[in-house]
Amino acid sequence: MNENGRQDPSDQHLLSQPLPRHGYMWALIVLIGAVAFVLAVWMVARDREMTAARAEFVAGSEKTVSLLMQRLDQYELVTRSGVSLVGSVARPTQAQWRDYVAGLNIDERFPAVVGLGFVGYVRHSRLPDLIREWESAGYGHLQVHPAGEREEYAPVLYFEPMSLSSKDVIGYDVLAHPVRRAVMIRAMESGQARLSAPMDLVADGASRQAGLAMAQPVYRGGERPAVAGDRRRALQGWVTLTFRIQPLLQNVLGQPHDGEHFKLYDITEGEPKLMAMYGRASDWEQYPAFVHTRELMVYGRRWQIVFHSPPLSVAAPQLTTLDRMLQLGLFSALLLSAIAGVLAHTEARARRIAHRLTEDYRRSEMRFRVAIQYSAIGKALLDSEGRIVDVNPALAEIVGRRPETLIGVPFESLFDRDPTLPPDPPFNFRGGVYRATRRLKREGSIARHAQLTYAPVPGNIGQDITGLVQVEDVTERLLAEARIRALNRTLEARVEARTRELQQTNQELEAFAYSVSHDLRAPLRAIEGFSRILAERYGSRLDEAGIGYLNRVRKAASRMGELIEALLKMSRLARSELRPEHVDLSRMATEIVDELRMAEPQRQVDVSIAPGMTVMGDATLLRNMLANLFGNAWKFTRQREHARIEFHSRINRDGLTEYCIRDNGAGFDPAYIDKLFRPFQRLHGAAEFAGHGIGLASVKRIVERHGGTIRAEGEPGVGATFLFTLPGPPEPDGARIDEPLGDSGPAGGPGGGMLASRWPGDRRGGAPEDLS
């Protein structure tokens, strides 16, 4: 910074110097190396975990295949045992077959099996013999179906366990069914058990389910002929085992666990044919982590099983931990590089700051000396002994001496000794900043005064400087303040005199009004009395016009009497002494409304008064005020069918409690609101609403005598609202209410201003109380 407070070009050059880059290069190298190391470790660990998860998934798939093949082998053993039974007795009876199947306990051991049956093989010429043999055995008539003539037949002779859906199986020619015929022919030609292609099976509930049939050939003599052509001639029949595919999987593998699902296809004919799906429905909606395909040769059929693993988060749960470790490693790498960058930046800035501090110190010293040298206020540096070390030209001009002559001079010697100062000299600066006004020792001219400000200022190492003193010549200011104080005293005397004159004038006006109104009552009584006597004694002698004139004289006298009575009331309001006490406005308003209802019991007026409105004031005057306000509201709502009057309180913008009396009566024109509170000013005709025009003027005077204010709001045909403020109950630390009050005040009555200051506004209010 230069002496003018602007930034020096050399500072701009210093701040624009580039930072050394080698530190940032090292930070970048640390970042790249750390990120590369973290990624390499993560990829190795991830590959290892994926390999382990895939191996575990494949092992589980092979276990499933093994369990499935074991169950099919068990089915083959069942069919072989059936072949042994048929070969041992040539042809078993129905009872023997039933007992044999019951002994196998198929329902419990093999729930997926629909039934175990024996299918006989006969040529067309031998079919009648088979039917007669069947009938002679007492089994009833054998109905071979479907009907039609064929070269060879293979009717189902036995089938157990028998159910409602399997009764129609007896006599069914399986060679008439393409899928069953294919498996029977292949079993006969191979002499071994063979599985059929997938086909629909009808369950007890008439629902169709995918199923398979296993066929085992039975030859006469019990041995399979070696020559393929002899096998058809030696064929006695087949033992068949029919089972459902889906229950087979559930019986062998149990209920599927989370993520375990696969699809079973038959690919014997080349094109895959879906036989069954194993797993939960929700598992098929998820993307598998691994897919494993296994092909099998199962009793003459080629099967394909496609295994789907759970999602990656389930199949390899350790990957989540590895991902978190990756995030932590990347964050650590970034943090490490950031630390390296911060260290490099700190090193560069430390060099710049060290250079700048050296330059700043020199410039700060220069600014300090320039500020002292050219300051318009006198300044001096003091040592520990109170002697002047350095001084500026402004101080030399104030004390009337040359600057070089003040060096080494005790600073206190420039001023008269002030006995009010503390015993320790201020230049010790033990109390921090210290201010004082002293008189200068200056020969000639008038006595000069200076405002002194002592402040501690540290010096350089080895330099005896302890403080700075600022000296400002305040002689002219002190003289001006003295003149202002003298002028204020003169103004106060004038105001006091004018106040006395105003009070005397107000008292004279009040006395005049009272005396005039009082003295006028005697002539009026005479006029009214003689008029009444004239009407009683000489009324018969007067014509109709004379009697009318006489009545008009009497009415005018009565009206004059009422006006004089109003003037007397106004005079009493100004002269009566206030007797403050706690006043419950809510209770007082309720009593006034009751009196109005008694005076006009035929009127129905809805009145609501909020409870708990308490103020401090003269009970008599406040009752007069409320009676006038409620009387006006009662009068001006006379023409309303549903008249309503409300009295409640609220907090206004100034934070004072404002009491509101609102009605829905005739209202008034807001353009004439300035006449509303003037005596004898009426906004409605006397024929429409009776009155003297003195009620609201009395209300205004009562409110102002209590130190409050009143205003009005209204609209013709809508209603009027009168809002006034009154002092509330005194606070606990407020003035006492039994102190004597003054006889006059600026509010137009005795003690108005004092009441306003002693009675803070009541801020309490409440919900309206319905008194209708």
Short structural description:
This protein is of the alpha+beta class. Strand 21 (643-651) and strand 22 form a beta hairpin. Helix 13 (475-538) packs antiparallel against helix 14 (544-575).
Task: Explain what this protein looks like in three dimensions.
The protein has 772 residues and is α+β, with helices and mostly antiparallel strands. The longest helix is centred in the N-terminal third of the chain and has 67 residues, at 22-88. The model is unreliable at 1-7, 10-17 and 732-772 (pLDDT under 50). The strands form six sheets. Strands 1, 4, 5, 6, 7 and 8 form a six-stranded antiparallel β-sheet that branches. A six-stranded mixed β-sheet has the order 23-24-22-21-19-25. A five-stranded antiparallel β-sheet has the order 14-13-17-16-15. Helix content is 45%, strand content 19%. The protein has 18 helices and 25 strands. A hairpin with a 2-residue loop joins strand 11 (291-298) and strand 12.
Rg of Cα set: 62 Å
Low-confidence runs of at least 5 consecutive residues: 1-7, 10-17, 732-772
* Helical content class: 40-55%
Tally of individual helices: 18
Tally the beta strands: 25
Largest sheet, strands/sense/barrel: 6 strands, antiparallel
